[in-house]
Each structure stands twice: as structure tokens, then as C-alpha cells.
Design brief:
Strand content: 35-45%
Number of strands: 25
Largest sheet: 6 strands, mixed
Number of helices: 10
Distance between the termini: 39 Å
CATH superfamily of the largest domain: ATPase, nucleotide binding domain
Radius of gyration: 25 Å
Length: 424
Amino acid sequence: MDNSKKLIVGYDLCDDYSQICCYSYKTFEPISIGFNEDEDDTFIPTALCVNKDSRVWLYGKDAIACHKDGSGILIDNLLDKLKNDEEIQIFEESYSAVDLLEKFFRKTLTLLKDYFPTEIITQLVVTISELDSPIVDGIYEALLMLGIDKDRVTVISHGTSFMYYALTQDRELWLNDVGLFDFQSKGLCYYQISINRRINPMIAILEKQDFSDTLNHQVIKENKVDKRFVFENIANTLLYKQIITTLYFTGKGFEGDWAMESIQSLCAGRRVFMGQKLYVKGACYGAKELSGDRKLDNIILLNNDMIVNSVAVRAYVDGNIQEVILTDATVPWYEVNSEVEVILDDAVDLEVIFRNIITKEIIRERIPLNSLPKRPNRMTRLKLHLSCMDRNRAKLIITDLGFGDIYPAMGKVAEYIMDMVETR
């Protein structure tokens, strides 16, 4: 495919402001999309408004202006509405949270037509602060209503966007670990990327620490703390004896002279960058990778939601005893949801195999099948369903499917919680 015809889109969806960018194959970097080239116009308030007279739907700054002059009904906090599955009434019509998000996506994505009037979206990555299931599901549903299916869209967290952004930069910027301080109204958090270069492919591991209880907008507003003092204490503790090549700073909380003075004190021996477009650009770089135009082939990205183990079972399938993969490593734990059917071959237990992609350690666990009725060999068919309770614990449900009309099914026979290998 001619890369110049690809439309690669990153979308940072937040409850206050959202941003859009596209990858330019002329400049080889993401470009911001807005109403015009004014920097402020690339920050789109995540809001809708219905004009009381014309009943026209507005979005972004127009929505805010319409509400302020009293001529419209404002709808904001779209992500919270998704999370809580809210429904609102406007002029005797009912709208679900997904309906509202679909309207916001529809209106904001039309901005792309001003820049790319004939192209359709090749790959879209939407990044949000945290991957809450109701929000993720709602985003996919809203985009499907626009004709953008899952084969063209992926939802990732801000942490994963940071990984895509940082590791797409010049290699000299991530020779050692890389850190990011994110100070939004909800509070301060810190991400750090560590790279294991001793294995091939390399593994980039993301860890997140949350300090929002200590330093957030409400605490500062009430003058309960000296934000510079608290931030510098947190930062100095985090960075003590850490070999960090580059530090990034993002979030409205870093606006003001105090932040620049604090950040300068952390610059010694490090490269430092500050800006408000890191996540949307990271999403755009991620979309470029997912479109097949890859730069990070030799690096596995492992964020703090992903499992570090693949899980397989040994069973009789297609005429042979073989390992059947239930899940690969580097899958977010909440997305692990696989089912396979297997036939037992002269076995009284089931062998489950965990492989750690970091340590290469292999652990084999045998699950007894004592509750199954005695049947001739290869006459017991099982359904195995694997999910995860968190990134370190897997749940395996074993269901007896019987064997045709000869041996009736028993149904569910066992449920096991298994600890997965977690070594970093």
C-alpha cells in the first residue's frame, strides 16, 4: 500500500479536552488537527450542546459558548456517563452515553476532511487515561456506529501511548530508562519505562505509580499543600539512584513558573521535554505501528496491565498430542477470554504450561480430573475457558461436553484459580 495514501489517526479522548492528530508521510511525524492552525484550537472541549431554538447539536468550543450565553443545553463528562451507563433526556428524546459519544466522534472526526478530503481512516488509535471496560466497550460501539470496526480501531491507555511515543524517538533518548510525570486535575502520576536489552526481542516494561491522593487540583485549590515542595519531594524520591536518560512532563498541573523552576532542578544529566500532546502523538505512532508500518519490530511493549506469561495445555487435537495456546503473553489481563475444545488421551489430569517471556521460565501445573466419569480413551471432550482475575491470577473453567449421544455431557466439572509466574 502506498503509505502516502494511508490515513493514520491518533485520538486522545479525555473528559475535559480531546485532541486529534494524523501521521504525515511528508514530515514523518504526527500533525495536530483542529479548527485552524492556532495551537489552542487543537484542544477540543469534550462537550456537546443542543441549541434550544434550532435544536442543532454543537461540539467543542461552540458547545461551551452556546451554553455560556444561555441558548443551549450542555452535555459534558462523556466518559463518566459511559462508565456509569447514564441515559439523558433532551427535548423528550432519550440518548444513551454511547449515542452521545457517537455524536462527539462524528463531529470531531469530520475535521479530518479539511486536511484529507478523500481518504478514509486506515487505522485509528484512541487513548484514554485508564482502560475501564465500560468506557472501552462504549468507544468501540460508538465508532462501529460510524462504520469504523475493530479491524481499524484500537483503544489503549495513556501509559501505552507514552511507550509508543518515547520509543519512537531517537534511540539516544531511551538509552537508559525513561520517565514521565503526568499532572492532571485528578492528580499526579509517574510512569517509567525500563528496557531489558539482554534478550531478543528487547522488552520494554512500563510501571506506573499514582500520587493523586497526595497532589491533586482540589488539594492545591484549598491551599492545603505547597505544590512545589510536595512535587520535588516525590520526584527526588522516585529518581534517587535511577539511571534515567530522558524525562517528560505533561498535564495542566505543570503550568506556571513554579513548575519550570522545579523541573530545571531535575535536568542534571538528563534530557527534559514538556508539552501537552504526548499522548495523542503516542496514539498516532501506535496507529502507524498497527497499520503495518512498523518501527518497533524488535521491541515487545509490556505495560502494567499485561500478563507476562503465555498459557497452554497439552491435549489430543486433530489426531495428535500437542500444546494448545489459551493466551499469549503481553495481552491485557482483562482481555483474556478464550475457549478451546480438547479430547483427553489416556489422561487423568490436565497439564497447564506457563511460559514467562521475561525470565524464559517454564512452569507446568497438573490439574486432576477426578470428577470425570470413566470412559474409553479419547471419548471425553472438554471445553476449557480461560480468563484472568488480575495480571497474576488466571481462572480456568473445565466443562465436560460428553461424546455425542453415547456419553452424555456432565456440564461444568471444575474451576481452578492459578497463580501465574510474575518476575521482573
